[in-house]
Amino acid sequence: MRRELAYYDLERGVSTLLDSQDAVFVRRLQVGEDAAYDELVRTYNASIYHVAYRMLGNSADASDAVQDTFLKVFRNIETFRGDSSLKTWIFRIGLSEILNRLRWWKRRHRLSTISMDEDRNGNGRTLCVPDAAPSPYQSLESKEQEMAIQQALSRLSADHRSIVVLRDIEGFSYTEIAEVLGISVGTVKSRLARARTDMKKSLIRYLSIPRV
Asked: By CB neighbour count within 10 A (0-12 exposed, 13-18 middle, 19+ buried), where does 39 fall?
């Protein structure tokens, strides 16, 4: 039988790095409140799927990664102590799951398969990049160009691909990316710069920029 939320217990075990609203939400999760779990899935399901799809290039594999991510979140939520934001903690678990899958494929010499007719939601739409910072794909609109983006992403290393996806597609801050990946902000910026350069080389014929 599910325990009801004990409000006197809200402050126990949760770091002051969380604001009071987030601390309350975490405690609701930790005591097993069904409505809190539903809210968590509604809040993060789409964004985790977007990252997984761009990293893995296949909608079925992305869905499996999302499911496994939430299973691990639910199983380990009692260990969360607020040393980072809840969002950062969840995406750290998600990226770990995604990268484990990529390493599994690499060990078995599996060729990357890209779902060319799907967008990140599996619906065949073109990519919309919600980042105001200059990036190598702001002018890409057509289906052909969307396919080219996914191919270019697949050519990046996993380290570089994850940063491009988090920054240029999901709009994470440099600090959030650093916390998710466990690296410094300076490393995030240098890897992003290198990854964007590689993306430009792959997408040069689609971009309205002069060849360097």
From this structure: middle
Residue type, 2: R
Q: Rounded to two decimals, what is the model's pTM?
A: 0.71
* 46 vs 83, higher pLDDT: 46
pLDDT in tens, 96-114: 999 988 877 666 654 444 4
Residue type, 7: Y
- Would the pLDDT of 209 be above 70? no
Q: Please state, for a pLDDT cut of 90, what percent of the chain lies above it.
A: 52
Q: What residue segments make up the domains of the chain, in order of their start? A: 16-206
DSSP the chain: -PPPP-GGGTTTT--TTS-HHHHHHHHHHHTT-HHHHHHHHHHHHHHHHHHHHHHH--HHHHHHHHHHHHHHHHHHGGG--SSS-HHHHHHHHHHHHHHHHHHHHHHTTPPP---TT--TTSS-PPP-----S--TTTT--SHHHHHHHHHHHHHS-HHHHHHHIIIIIT---HHHHHHHHTS-HHHHHHHHHHHHHHHHHHHGGGSSS---
CATH number corresponding to 16-206: 1.10.1740.10
Report the chain's mean pLDDT, rounded to a whole number. 78
Residue (of 155, 167, 158, 18) closest to 95 by Cα position: 158
